[in-house]
Design brief:
Blueprint lengths: L20 H6 L11 H5 L20 H17 L1 H7 L11 H10 E4 L4 E4 L5 H12 L26 H4 L16 H15 L8 H13 L12 H20 L5 H18 L10 H15 L4 H17 L13 H20 L5
Antiparallel strand pairs: 1-2
Helix pairs in contact: 5-6, 8-10, 10-11, 10-12, 12-13, 12-14, 13-14
Length: 358
């Protein structure tokens, strides 16, 4: 019997470092012979036997190399006076850079000085990109405020407020009919009808605030018809008030039914001449409220398409203000935070409600 010490282990097949393309496709063993391997030669496939040359191995970056490169970039950022204003003088943490987050935070939201409301622009917005470029080129330049606007945006008058100089005559600002009110008894009746019939279903406005501003109109010593100079808030408030009176007129029993449409349409036209969506140059929560009130008014008229389009404009302005984002209202007081939620709820409700209502 043969001794077990004389038995040799089986010889392992030598693995080639690079197989030819046909052998790799068939997943068969290739001896790597050049120019034609043994299997391809046996199968008469010498013309197809080719090798894929291994690409040159690139230098693998280690963690220390990445840290060194990052530190060199941070040194360049600190040395640039334009970038230093955006990044700040605080030391940067190793292994991370705050240059991109800072720019992203700046482009996530843009403060509109004219409307005193935060307009949300995404990081991919062209407006945000241009503002960053201008700010890097000249840090002293304020890109959010036009050179023609005054230091106090509320001091702007009606002619240049919403673009009336482009599509309307400047004398529109002095049209006293736009800011005049009916007699106190009729105005109070229409005002009360709105809160009794419209507000419980669509709580768009904050009743205490509107009631206080409405009461101040009757307490002023100077007649309202002589107050030609109007601010942003005044113009939007008068536009909202006209819509409140128009909706109240549609529900009032003290006005003959034959005259309701005529009276309510006159209030609607006043509101539309004060703030027109064709010349809407700024956005605010009050603008969204105004558009929603107009949509409700148009819903009870023969202008169904106008009603549907008005809700669409209100949704677009609301999304521009970030009303659909809960985090944008985290820093505001409770009243503003709740009003933003309420207005957005009414936007969604009207958008869902109108298509199914004849």
């Amino acid at each position: 019997m043969m001794s077990t010490h004389n038995v040799l282990p089986p010889r392992r097949r030598r693995r080639t470092q690079l197989a030819c393309n046909p052998c790799r496709a068939r997943k068969t063993g290739c001896d790597g012979r050049r120019p034609v391997c043994t299997l391809c030669s046996m199968k008469a496939m010498g013309d197809q036997c080719a090798y894929q040359e291994r690409p040159s191995s690139s230098k693998t970056l280690t963690l220390s190399d990445v840290n060194n490169r990052l530190q060199s970039l941070e040194v360049k950022v600190r040395g640039d006076p334009h970038l230093r204003r955006n990044v700040g003088d605080t030391p940067l943490a190793s292994g991370s850079s705050t240059v991109i987050p800072v720019l992203m935070e700046q482009s996530a939201s843009h403060q509109s000085h004219d409307a005193a409301e935060e307009t949300v622009y995404g990081p991919s917005s062209n407006i945000s990109f241009l503002q960053e470029v201008i700010q890097l080129q000249d840090p002293e330049m304020d890109t959010t405020q036009s050179a023609q606007s005054s230091a106090c945006p509320n001091e702007r008058t009606m002619p240049d407020l919403l673009g009336f100089t482009e599509v309307q005559s400047p004398s529109l600002a002095h049209d006293v009919d736009l800011v005049s009110l009916p007699d106190r008894q009729l105005a109070d009746t229409l005002f009360r009808c709105f809160w009794d019939f419209i507000h419980p279903v669509f709580p768009i406005l904050h009743r205490p605030s509107i009631a206080t501003m409405y009461g101040h109109l009757w307490e002023q010593s100077m007649p309202l018809t002589y107050r030609y100079k109007q601010t942003n808030d005044d113009v939007v408030f008068h536009a909202i008030l006209n819509m409140v009176l128009a909706l109240g007129c549609q529900r009032s029993d003290q006005i003959p039914s034959a005259q309701r449409n005529q009276f309510s349409d006159s209030f609607y036209r006043r509101s539309y001449r004060l703030v027109s969506i064709e010349t809407l140059d700024f956005s605010s929560l009050q603008i969204v409220q105004l558009l929603l009130l107009r949509a409700i008014y148009l819903h009870y008229t023969t202008y169904a398409d106008r009603c549907w389009n008005m809700v669409g404009v209100a949704l677009r302005v609301a999304q521009g203000l970030g009303l659909h984002l809960e985090q944008t209202a985290s820093s505001k007081n409770q009243l503003k935070r709740e009003m933003r939620r309420r207005v957005w709820h009414n936007c969604v409700a009207l958008d869902r409600y109108l298509p199914y209502y004849p």
